[in-house]
């Protein structure tokens, strides 16, 4: 422990990480640098400065990373139509590589020889933070207090605060029954009654979306503009990546869009039940697939769909900085040069419907060929006979072989 002189801590200002500051100072006798990132969690991050100062921290980093998060992490992920186990839009997973990267940068800037985080030994985040850190700085020391200390309950944490005179803000209504984590893309809920997968999530748990039953009776229709696979405007108004997500969260959430209740397979081996709200991501997924359906070659689109589960698993498991993820991203991004145009979306009582798509520059849809009316010879239907017979050849051979047995 004495070999660690300075550590960069991912610091939220909450109970766990405030205890970790003092615990690091006491157990490792080291200087602590705190890093608090605003990645759109919807809460003020500046109060973390005063809390860190009260704990004797001298080097305090508080940074707005919303645009970087949206531009360099969320948007590239959505170019791949990424979804984990058929449902999860990876809102927590995709935030971790950015935090890990910035922690390593701060460690380099401050001369720190270690980083620390508040992720538990049962979760995925410990893996994501640490794989990212080791990929970017192989010799870094990682301190994970939840894997070392015996403060494994809220009661023990509160006792530690009392002993060490750590101020704790008691939220109105006492302890939340859920463990919540939010960023620009989503908010997650775990714990409490959600630990029983048969138990229904309570209506008052949800924060970003109205219940579909309570959503407006009139649909919301919007037009989303794409350039090279990324959203650049909504209803003709140009927007930055972070603004796009913020706007879609507001509009889609008001229409009851984006709720999810799943049991997922964690990388550490257990199944976990979680609830998620991802209003913007739900719309982005639907709209991006719609514009790709018009502009991507069939085999390119199908190959992307085959590669996507592997890409999703890499992000979920914490391999954003791994060479195979970078390789896949390069291939995915190359396909997006033609993904330009507009998608018209309808939001209504929890549903997202595509009601139009167009691309003046890169549409592969040829109405002269696709029409059910006379196409003027653009497509010779008689050609289909030979096509079918050639593709049926192996099936006919197999069928004849079976009859000969």
Could you walk me through the main structural features you see in this protein, from its secondary elements to its overall organization?
- Among the domains are: 134 residues, 3-Layer(aba) Sandwich (Rossmann fold), CATH 3.40.50.620; 138 residues, Alpha-Beta Complex (Argininosuccinate synthetase, chain A, domain 2), CATH 3.90.1260.10.
- It contains twelve helices and 14 strands.
- The protein has a five-stranded parallel beta sheet with strand order 3-2-1-4-5, with helices on both faces. Strands 10-9-8-13-14 form a five-stranded antiparallel beta sheet. Strands 6-7-12-11 form a four-stranded antiparallel beta sheet, with no helix packed on it.
- Strand 9 and strand 10 form a beta hairpin.
- Helix 4 crosses helix 5 and helix 9 runs antiparallel to helix 10.
Question: What attributes does this structure have?
Answer:
405 residues, alpha/beta, Rossmann fold, Argininosuccinate synthetase, chain A, domain 2, 5-stranded parallel β-sheet, 19% strand
Going by helix content, strand content and strand pairing, the class is: alpha/beta
The fold-level CATH name of the domain at 179-296 and 339-358 is Argininosuccinate synthetase, chain A, domain 2
- Provide mean pLDDT, rounded: 94
Count of beta strands: 14
The CATH homologous superfamily of the domain at 179-296 and 339-358 = Argininosuccinate synthetase, chain A, domain 2
Please describe the biggest sheet, giving its number of strands, its sense, and whether it closes into a barrel: 5 strands, parallel
State the order of secondary-structure elements, H for helix, E for strand.
EHEHEHHEHEHEEEEEHEEHHHEEHH
CATH hierarchy: architecture of the domain at 179-296 and 339-358: Alpha-Beta Complex
